[in-house]
Amino acid sequence: MGKRRNKQEMIKLKKDLNTDRLWSHSRIDTYHNCSYAYFLKYVKNVREQHTSIYSYLGGAFHDILEELYNNNCSYDAMTDEVDNILLNADISDMKFVKNEEEKHNKIRNKYYACIQHFFNNHVPIKQNILTEKEILVNIKNQWFIGYIDAVYKDGDTYHIIDYKTSTMFPKSKIEQKGKQLTLYALYLIQNGIPVNRIKIKWNFLKYLNVSFTHNGKEKNYNYERHIYVSKLARFIRQDLKALNYNDDVIIAIVEKSVEENTLKHLPQHIQNKYVISDCYVDIPLTEETINNLKEYINFTILNIFELESNYAKTREETPWLKHVCDKDSYWCTNICGYGGHCRCFAEYMKSKNLYQTEHTDDVSFLSQLGLV
Questions:
Q1: One-character DSSP codes across 286-341
Q2: What is the per-residue pLDDT across 323-358, written as a single tens digit (0 to 9) for each?
Q3: Deepest of 287, 311, 346, 369, by most Cβ within 10 A of its Cβ?
Q4: Comparing C-alpha atoms, which of 225, 231, 222 is closest to residue 112?
Q5: CA 274, 280, 284, 285 torsion: positive or negative?
Q6: Is 82 a member of any domain?
C-alpha cells in the first residue's frame, strides 16, 4: 500500500488545518453499520480482535493493482502474487464463514476463481494513473481525509475508480454505497474541477462485462467471472447452430467451454464476437447527489457529537448499543472485528439460545400430548 501519513504527520496535519479531528468515510460508514463498533473503535480506542478475510484479501488486491500501475510489479509477477496471497489465507486458516466448513468452501472456491480470472485477464488502463492519491475535503468546517484507489485524466474528464471485491450492489443502493466516491469527487470540485468533468465508478473485480450483438440487438451483461461462459451458453449454441454444426458437436463444445469456463474452444470469429472487459459501474454524480452527501455527513457528525458529549458526562454505553437481528449475524460473526467481544452480539446470541431452549421445551411438551 502507498505511503500514508504516520502518527506524527497526522498530528502536524491537524495542527495545520486547525482541527482536533480528521474524519474519513470509513469512520462515518462504521457508525452507520454499527454504532457500538464505532464506540469501541473511536471512543474507547479498543483494538479490533481480528481482521476478516474480506479485509485482508481486499487490501492485498488493492496493493497489487497499485504496484502494477506504479510499474513496481510486472503482469506475470502480479498473477503469481495473487496465488501467494490466496495460499496464505488458506494457511492462516482465514474463513469466509466461521464454524461452517461447507459454506466456507463454497464461498472460497467461487471467490478465488473470480479473483484469479480477474488478474489473469485484466487489461490495464492506458492513461497515466495516480494510485492511493490522498485527498482532503472540508464539509461544514469538518475535515475529511481519504485515499483514492485510482484516478486518471482522459481528455478533459477525470475518472475516479474504487476497486471492489464485494458482491455488486443493487441499483437501489448505488447512491448510498457511492457516497465514498462522491466524497472523493468533492475533492476535485473543491480544487476547481467542474462536476460535469468528473466520472466516478467502481471496478467490481469478481465480475466481468460481456458485450455482443445477437439477432441484430446489442447485448451488455455483467456476470460473475467463475461462471460467465455458462451464462453465455444459450447464445453460443445458437452461434454454432447457425454454422450448421450438428447437435452432438454443439453439445460437446458447449459442455467443454462451460466446464473450463473459457471461449477458446469456439471458432475464432465467434470468440471475437464476445467482447470481455472489466466490470465498471458508473455512479451518478450531480449537484443533488453532492448536496445529499453533505447533508448525510453533517447529520451523522451531529449525532456522533451528541453521543460523545453524553458519554463524556455519564460514561454510559447504552445509547451506543445496536439491536442485532438475524440479518446482522453474518456481519457480526465473520466480518466485524469486535464480534466475539461485543455486548450487542452477545445479547443477540443469548436471546437466540434462550428462544431455541424454550422452543425445544415447547416441542417436547406438545410431543408428550401427542400433538407433534
A1: -HHHHHHHHHHHHHHHHHHHHHHHHHHHH---GGG-----GGGHHIIIII-TTGGG
A2: 999 998 888 888 999 876 788 988 888 887 754 554
A3: 311
A4: 225
A5: negative
A6: no
Within a domain: 11:
no
In this prediction, residue 233 carries a pLDDT of: 98
- Residue stretches of the chain with pLDDT short of 70: 1-2, 340, 354-372
Cell numbers 467463475 correspond to 226
Q: Which residues form the domain of 234?
A: 208-278
Q: In this structure, are residues 1 and 66 in contact, taking their beta carbons and an 8 Å threshold?
A: yes
Same domain, 252 and 164: no
What is the tally of structural domains in the chain?
2
Domain boundary (262, 293, 324) is at 293
| Cα 46 to Cα 26, 54, 178, 267, 341, distances in angstroms | 16, 21, 28, 59, 11
C-alpha cell recorded at residue 372: 407433534
Parallel, antiparallel or unpaired: strands 275-283 and 198-214 = antiparallel
One domain, residues 197 and 151 = yes
110 domain residue, yes or no:
no
Mapped onto helix, strand or coil, the DSSP state of residue 2 is: coil
Asked if residue 63 lies in contact with residue 84, where contact means CB atoms within 8 angstroms, the answer is: no
pTM of the model: 0.90
220 with 193, same domain?
no
Question: Same domain, yes or no, for 151 and 287?
Answer: yes
Let me know whether 198 and 243 are in one domain. Answer: no
Say yes or no: 137 and 201 in one domain: yes
Write out pLDDT tens, residues 267-302. 999 999 999 999 999 999 999 999 999 999 999 999
Give the three-class secondary structure for 191.
coil
State what percent of residues in the chain have pLDDT above 70: 94
Per-residue confidence (pLDDT) for residue 350, from 0 to 100 = 86
Q: What pLDDT, on a 0 to 100 scale, did the predictor assign at position 371?
A: 46
The answer to whether position 198 is within a domain reads yes
Same domain, 253 and 170: no
Q: What is the C-alpha separation between 51 and 53, in angstroms, rounded?
A: 7
Region of 323 please: left (phi>0), alpha (psi -120 to 50) or beta: beta
Q: Which residues contact 198 (CB under 8 A, 6 or more apart)?
A: 157, 158, 160, 185, 188, 189, 285
